[in-house]
Amino acid sequence: MSLVTTDLAATVGTITMNHGRKHNALSAALVDDLLAAFDVMERAKARALVLRAPKGVKVWSAGHDVKELPAGGRDPLGWNDPLRTVIRRIGDFPAPVIALVEGTVWGGACELALSCDLVIATPEVTFAITPAKLSVPYNVTGLLTFMSRMPLPVLKEMAFTGEPVDAARALSLGFVNHVQQAADIDAFVMKMAARIALNAPLSVTAMKRSIGILAAASPLPPIMFEQIQGERRKVWDSTDYREGMAAFLERREPVYKGE
Ligand code: LCV
Which pLDDT score is estimated for 82? Predict the structure, then answer.
């Protein structure tokens, strides 16, 4: 049974992440079903796409499936990681993707939501960037996603503390487009999606792709990329990395020693 449901109303598609038992943790299985759903919607030439969880969820997505992270000794967020793959798919999708967010959003799911073209949330939504809590070295394109959505001091606060930021603050900082009450958000999002779908799809796609290319156009000399990878390897090779995984699985607070 698929872990997502899809709906296509005229030229507006909706993909619903529906693995409630694991709070939509972005496992390989859930991401595979998401990718299949994106392909269905692209073949159907959807002109706007809504990415959501079931109505009224407590957790939109619990982020990367921690139980699928490598035990150590290699990059936990490499090119073929399911989270990286679905993030790229959102950017590649020809039509605008609108994140309809209810519930709490954790770790890589923050990047999933913020990599969408528009983010619309209820007031109860919170976003928590959690790599520091798990001793995970977030990856280059992931950090660039966050850097392009919010001021550096805000990203540093979220990344270093791991503490949630609520929808009102996210709206004031610009990484949420609108905040709507739970009773109103579905109609609000579908009205915006329908408005987008009435516009010229070739123009919308060209602008989405051009903006994406321009926003990602940050020339990084290879030596700097290797320097970043060196910093990240210190983390994924550390005993702290293994402590972060163990603490999560044992449902206890981690004790980090900086080694
Ligand atoms: C696997 C899970 C998860 C999960 N993975 O329900 O950004 S990075 O670098 O940090 C990146 C690596 C990343 O995204 O890491 C993941 C960051 N996510 C989090 O830190 C959130 C972890 N989850 C939670 O704090 C709680 O599950 C919340 C607060 C979301 C919900 O709490 P609640 O008490 O309602 P449970 O914790 O009981 O979770 C229900 C089931 O979902 C699994 C969890 O292990 C449990 O499974 P079992 O019943 O089999 O034990 N689950 C939740 N999150 N990220 N599995």
Answer: 96
Asked whether residue 217 carries a pLDDT value surpassing 90, the answer given is no
Average the pLDDT over 232-240 and give the result.
96
CA of 22 to the centre of ligand 1 (A): 7
Residue of 3, 19, 66 best suited for mutating to test ligand 1, as the one with most atoms within 8 Å of CB:
66
- Any catalytic annotation for residue 13? no
Q: For the sheet containing 165-166, what is the strand order?
A: 59-61, 104-106, 126-128, 165-166
pLDDT for the residue 218 = 82
Residue spans of the domains in the chain: they are 4-195
Question: What is the rounded radius of gyration, in angstroms, for the C-alpha atoms of the chain?
Answer: 18
Which residue is closest in CA terms to ligand 1's atom 21? 62
Do the beta carbons of residue 98 and residue 120 sit within 8 Å? yes
Q: Report which ligand 1 atom has the smallest distance to the Cα of 133.
A: 10
Ligand 1 site-directed mutation target among 22, 160, 163, 242, most atoms within 8 Å of CB:
22
Pairing of strands 118-121, 178-179: parallel
Protein residue with least CA distance to atom 4, ligand 1: 65
Give the tens place of pLDDT for each residue, 181-200.
Answer: 999 999 999 999 999 999 99
CA distance 52 to 112: 11
- Tell me yes or no: is domain 4-195 CATH 3.90.226.10: yes
72 — pLDDT class (breaks 50, 70, 90): confident
pTM of the model: 0.97
